[in-house]
Design brief:
Length: 247
């Protein structure tokens, strides 16, 4: 599954799932732009790992919820390397809390990054994809967007919104040979899950038919399939990577 010569942008690519996706796409031959907001050192580490493994990567800092910043970032990539052909909308934040006590700003922040950011980035790269009559967009959703999760009404609503956005975009851009899909991870081992107690981890595993947490590489592999030639006839779909916890 070669991506030689392709230009990819992964938002929120500095660590966790985003880093694994960057490494996977670079390993397939793509020039990967690693997006970050404030943790440039983490993005540089991702870039270093890619280069050490023989890949090509650049880092680019911008806030996906800032329309002007997104426009300037895409212009920079186009001027430096060419049109973005693969976009992975992975950037996301959480502001968890029960709805009764949730601040309006916590709702807005999550919506602006997790849903509006996908709209802004996808729109910004779409013109270049349409001109080339080839493009791949993968939106990183979540099991929470399908099953819901107490304390995450903002996060679950934003991720659920991605489903409608993905399907509508797929219908709009399909005639231009641009596929739009999403991947919905379940519980994945990341820096955040490392902070959980063993009791909590065991409780989570008990909810998963496969009996274990997923790896970031599992999500990256799903993304790789969707952007490769093997996934050329798949669009408007959500690929669930959750060990069977949501069926």
């Amino acid at each position: 599954m070669s991506l030689d010569g392709k230009i990819a942008l992964v938002t929120g690519g500095s660590r966790g799932i985003g880093r694994a996706i960057c490494l996977k796409l670079a390993g397939m031959g793509a020039l990967v732009y690693v997006n970050y907001v404030s943790r440039s050192e983490a993005a540089l580490k991702t870039q270093k790992l890619i280069v050490e493994n023989g890949g090509k990567a650049e880092i680019i800092g911008f806030d996906v919820s800032d329309a002007a910043a997104v426009t300037e970032a895409i212009k920079h990539i186009v001027n430096e390397a060419g049109p973005v052909e693969i976009l992975v909308n992975n950037a996301g934040i959480t502001r968890d809390g029960l709805m009764a006590r949730m601040k309006e700003s916590d709702w807005d922040d999550v919506m602006n990054t997790n849903l509006k950011g996908v709209f802004l980035c996808s729109k910004a790269v779409s013109r270049g994809m349409m001109k080339k009559k080839w493009g791949r967009v993968v939106n990183i959703s979540s099991v929470s967007g399908f099953a819901g999760n107490p304390g995450q009404v903002n996060y679950a609503a934003a991720k659920a919104g991605l489903t409608g956005l993905t399907k509508s975009m797929a219908r709009e851009y399909g005639s231009r040979n641009i596929t739009i899909n999403s991947v919905a991870p379940g519980y994945i081992e990341t820096e955040m899950t490392e902070l959980l107690s063993e009791d909590v981890k065991e409780q989570l595993k008990s909810e998963i038919p496969l009996g274990c947490l997923g790896a970031t590489e599992d999500v990256a592999a799903a993304v790789a399939y969707l952007v490769s030639v093997d996934g050329r006839y798949v669009t408007g779909q959500t690929l669930h990577v959750n060990g069977g916890m949501y069926m």
